[in-house]
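Page 37, continued from 36.
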């Protein structure tokens, strides 16, 4: 059973302007069968973290262990780790068989002993009938499978993948994503996967590390990352349309604690009302849970600014006075036009964040307010 432990690693680069901290105190673990994704905006430190695990960079401090063995300063070929880069990078002058077997050649495995593992890896990727072809004779999807076969041929303890789908078109990306998931389930080996694409992270992962400014903001399951973000950054970064935010205030009565936006007090059940003090807070809620009503008297008042239709759904931008515009996802067949006056109401899920730090104070769920004792 393989167990990868990344323990409080820090990476500092020397630059002409001084020191640049690329990774700061990153820690996580991955066991057999677990697919862990590092996701975040460009420059957040996810690729540097992966390169430290692979041995292409040496952490300034911290430890990396595989099955309890300290591999922090070992060269890449001594780590029992395989890395797939963003570029497919098949050698054009080699056959598919030779490309797949190349890591074994680098490790000093004889030609006779390389053929069996290369054939087995090709069978795993369902390209065994293409072993004697040249890369130029393969389609883009077949080349991607050959690159994956080259990654798995060594049967490493851990697989690392650095944005392997970013250069693919949408259709090929979806096909290859399924292929990676199939191979992962078959091999049952820990995978650490880097991407800036949150859709990849949400659909492929057992655990996600959302990174920002060299640190992990939240390490959790995709479900908890989406429904229970630790802070406003995670809430706004994760999700196809991000998260709506609105300035709100805490409203207290003798029997209840609630939040209000422009006098609108949504019917929300607070999980931890004791965390809220009187004053300003930030209310976050997703476009998918934002309802637009044209005849209602309750809700956040606004004007429809833009309607973008995507098949059965439409994304509506609503201009409001107190903060950035809100987004709402509605049925594209709904009779709603730009310029219409609407009231935005909060649906099932919402979150209350500290106005200054952005840390979550409480998660909320739509439901009837609890009666007073």
């Amino acid at each position: 059973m393989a167990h990868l432990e990344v323990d409080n690693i820090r990476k500092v680069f020397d630059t002409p302007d001084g020191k640049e901290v690329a990774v700061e105190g990153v820690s996580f673990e991955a066991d057999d069968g677990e697919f862990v994704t590092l996701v975040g905006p460009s420059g957040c430190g996810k690729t540097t973290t992966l390169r430290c695990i692979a041995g292409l960079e040496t952490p300034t401090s911290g430890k990396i262990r595989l099955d309890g063995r300290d591999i922090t300063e070992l060269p890449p070929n001594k780590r029992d780790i395989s890395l797939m880069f963003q570029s497919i990078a098949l050698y054009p002058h080699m056959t598919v068989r030779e490309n797949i077997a190349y890591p074994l050649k680098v490790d000093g495995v004889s030609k006779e002993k390389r053929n069996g593992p290369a054939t087995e890896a090709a069978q795993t990727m369902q390209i065994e009938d293409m072993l004697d072809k040249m890369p130029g004779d393969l389609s883009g999807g077949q080349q991607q499978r050959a690159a994956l076969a080259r990654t798995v041929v060594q049967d490493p303890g851990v697989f690392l993948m650095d944005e392997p789908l970013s250069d693919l078109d949408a259709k090929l990306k979806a096909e290859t994503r399924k292929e990676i998931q199939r191979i992962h389930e078959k091999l049952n080996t820990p995978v650490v996967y880097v991407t800036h694409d949150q859709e990849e992270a949400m659909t492929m992962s057992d655990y996600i590390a959302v990174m920002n400014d060299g640190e992990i903001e939240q390490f959790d399951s995709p479900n908890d990352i989406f429904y229970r973000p630790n802070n406003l950054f995670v809430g706004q970064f994760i999700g196809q349309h991000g998260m709506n935010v609105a300035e709100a205030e805490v409203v207290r009565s003798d029997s209840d604690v609630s939040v209000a936006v422009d006098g609108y007090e949504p019917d929300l059940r607070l999980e931890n009302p004791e965390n809220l003090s009187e004053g300003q807070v930030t209310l976050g809620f997703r476009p998918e849970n934002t309802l637009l009503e044209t005849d209602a008297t309750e809700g956040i008042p606004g004007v429809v600014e833009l309607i973008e239709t995507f098949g059965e759904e439409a994304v509506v931008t609503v201009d409001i006075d107190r903060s950035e515009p809100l987004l709402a996802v509605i049925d594209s067949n709904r009779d709603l036009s730009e310029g219409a006056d609407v009231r935005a109401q909060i649906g099932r899920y919402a979150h209350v964040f500290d106005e200054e730090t952005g840390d979550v104070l409480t998660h909320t769920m739509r439901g009837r307010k609890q009666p007073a004792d």
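The longest strand covers residues 18-31. Flag for discussion at group meeting. The chain has two domains: 3-229, 240-366.
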